[in-house]
């Protein structure tokens, strides 16, 4: 039952995000960007992105060690608060560079929609786990 709820959340959020992004692209005449790969806006964005990703890896390893040896409540705290913040930080940096340093600043709207969709997905999953637990 839990897996069915998570899959249904995923499908619904992906469809809603896709249609909102499509409407924004049509309204502002934006091109569709690649999903995977290194699509940096400039050299400064590339440098900052790499530094943040290295910091995220170090923080995730530290949190994994803390999770394995720490008290039980740290698992919930890490999953609900720290992981989404760390993983969204890269997209927030991308949104900032798209807004201030790009020739198409409206692309930042789509990036912010992706960030919000990820947070809503995480929130729905955590609420599902709390309700069913």
Summarize the structure.
The protein has 133 residues and is mostly helical.
Overall description:
The structure is a single chain. The protein has four helices and no strands. The two termini are 12 Å apart. The radius of gyration is 17 Å and the shape is flat. The mean pLDDT is 83. Helices cover 82% and strands 0% of the residues. It is an all-alpha fold and 133 residues long. It has one domain (2-12, 43-132).
**Cα Rg:** 17 Å
Shape: flat
Biggest sheet descriptor: none
User: How far apart are the first and last residues' alpha carbons, in Å?
Assistant: 12 Å
* Poorly predicted regions: none
Which whole number gives the mean pLDDT? 83
The count of domains is: 1
Q: How many helical elements?
A: 4
Beta-strand content: under 5%
Helix content: over 70%
């Amino acid at each position: 039952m839990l897996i069915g709820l998570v899959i249904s959340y995923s499908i619904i959020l992906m469809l809603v995000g896709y249609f909102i992004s499509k409407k924004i692209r049509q309204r502002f005449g934006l091109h569709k960007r690649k999903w995977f790969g290194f699509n940096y806006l400039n050299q400064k964005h590339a440098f900052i992105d790499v530094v943040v990703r290295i910091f995220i890896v170090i923080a995730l390893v530290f949190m994994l060690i803390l999770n394995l040896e720490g008290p039980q409540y740290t698992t919930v705290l890490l999953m609900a608060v720290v992981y989404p913040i760390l993983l969204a930080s890269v997209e927030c940096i991308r949104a900032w560079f798209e807004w201030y340093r790009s020739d198409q600043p409206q692309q930042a709207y789509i990036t912010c929609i992706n960030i919000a969709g990820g947070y809503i997905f995480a929130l729905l999953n955590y609420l599902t786990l709390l309700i069913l637990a």
